[in-house]
Amino acid sequence: MRIQKQNNLYQLTFMPRLFPVNCYLIEENDGLTLVDAALASSTSSILSAARTIGKPITKIVLTHAHSDHIGALDSLKNALPNAEVMLSQMESDILQNGTKMEAGHPIKGGYPKNIKTKPDRFLSEGDFVGSLEVISAPGHSPGMLALFDHRDGALLVGDAFQLRGGIAVSGDLRWQFPFPAWATWSKEISIQSAKKLADLKPKTLAVGHGDLLHEPLLPMKQAILRAEKGAKKHA
């Protein structure tokens, strides 16, 4: 596991050279918020990172419920029984019900079937989790959330953008790393969410797959233009 720190944000990257999977620890005065739960094998490394920082994980927020963002949830909840688990109601419903379609689009990506942990709270646009404002960002999945830290402008977007293989809006294929595009529910809705996220003018972009990107606004806008051109070409 690799750890990179930016202000209040710690990026934890698993398999950084092969298939990078990120989760994040966000430091608050009274503890840590874990954003996403990475892979089933990630539990001990996440807990070790929190011990190194020296604060307890008190909250677990899931941007969406694909396997590479929720894999360690059950074992983390067993280790941290008092941690509050949060995600959108739509992602929870898809996870629990095995939904195949939403708004006329087939739901893609791997939703694990054996997650036992139940959410303590459903999150919606405009809610806050500590310093993080919740932003609805569907597209890659129907109920995906992003999180904006107003203290320093860090924007955690789940898979709304990828940076591995080149910056891209979810659904805009990058052959160097095609997996987020293959797992995208609606490219058109992804583009609308990407525009909304760019309007926040973030100072740091934190994605599910790829390194941190500083001063990301121009690259985000360029990625949106490319995705729009691709959508028109295939319309």
UniProtKB/TrEMBL annotation:
InterPro entries: Metallo-B-lactamas (IPR001279), NDM-1-like (IPR050855), RibonucZ/Hydroxyglut_hydro (IPR036866)
Pfam families in alphabetical order: Lactamase_B
Residues of the Metallo-beta-lactamase domain: 20-209
PANTHER family cross-referenced by the UniProt entry: METAL-DEPENDENT HYDROLASE (PTHR42951:SF9), METALLO-BETA-LACTAMASE DOMAIN-CONTAINING (PTHR42951)
Protein known as: Metallo-beta-lactamase domain-containing protein
Organism expressing this protein natively: Terribacillus saccharophilus
